[in-house]
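ESCALATION

Customer reports they have been waiting on this structure for their group meeting. Please prioritize. Original submission:
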Amino acid sequence: MAKIEQIPILLLTGFLGSGKTTLLARWLTAPELEGAMVIVNELGEVGLDHRLLEASSDVPLLLENGCACCAAQEDLTGTLARLFGDRLHRRIQRFNWVLIETTGMADPLPVIDAIRRHPLLGERFRIAGVVTALDAKRGLDRLTEFPECRNQLAAADAVIITKTDLATASEVSRARDRLPDLAPHAKVLASANGDLPAADLMSVLAACPECGSHAHGGDGHAHEHAHGDHQHGNHEHADTSARIQAEHADGVTSAFLPLPAPVPYGVLIAALDTLMHGHADTLLRLKGLVRLEGAPGWHAVQATPGQGITRAEVPIEEGETPRAGFTLIAFHEPAAGIAGSLKALIAVKSARQVGDTADREAPR
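Update from on-call: job pushed to the front of the queue and completed.
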């Protein structure tokens, strides 16, 4: 009997702000991932990552809202099943890979389990690798409060220490020293500003034929592994009778702040600086699409306490009117309250700017 073709799935995980989208944007331009289909899973009412990827690649993109390991799990498996049917009946262009970028709050273990259990997906797809991005500066600090972070590392076949250009040598060394215990079967790579080539990643996702581990690539078998219930080559689990439940930290919420009118960039930066300083311990992530006074087009603005603010212009299709505003994700403080604070800060700093302008223009 002919062997059934299985489409490889690359699962990209990592906590909020770890740099997953920056890595993926580079990989999608590489020949190693030619013919890929991308599914972007985002937490919040309005997504942004798919727009950043569209700006850097013409790879087909699908967007799933909600956490892939929880509320959006059925949507994700349904999307994969539909994609396979469309590919089989040639309703869409043939794809050779599926890349899934999960939300930073996703526990990858239930996602893997759901795909393997699905009668169609388990036969027609295979998990080719779980890649986890770990922020060199702050990634380890999240482990005690967020079980998602621990499970993202435990499931990894490759861990990429990201933002090494922003971290000190001791911070990078600290991350490397901890990873053998946190991700014992993973190969460790490093990236500065998303500069890790796809070829380097793909070369370490070839499992060792002797032990199934990815921790030493395919060039040697100089150590032993205690596999336990987890076989990293194919993500087998010993208990096949019970579904794997997602682990999530308590007290994580998200909210959306609409900003329909253009905002002066200086006002926005000042408001975000004040917000991140005042909520440094509770605001996990802020990102959104806005219009700026005096600057044409639409701009993606992202902010993470301790990591600063980034801005990039993104293309919008003709006739499309995106929903402008920010998605905020918070911990131990309602995200809606922080969104309200940001709205008030923008109003106050806008009024102050208007007053300062009036004072400068007043006759002496």
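Sent to customer with the following note: Residues 252-361 form a domain with the Hypothetical Protein Yjia; Chain: A;domain 2 fold (CATH 3.30.1220.10).
Escalation resolved.
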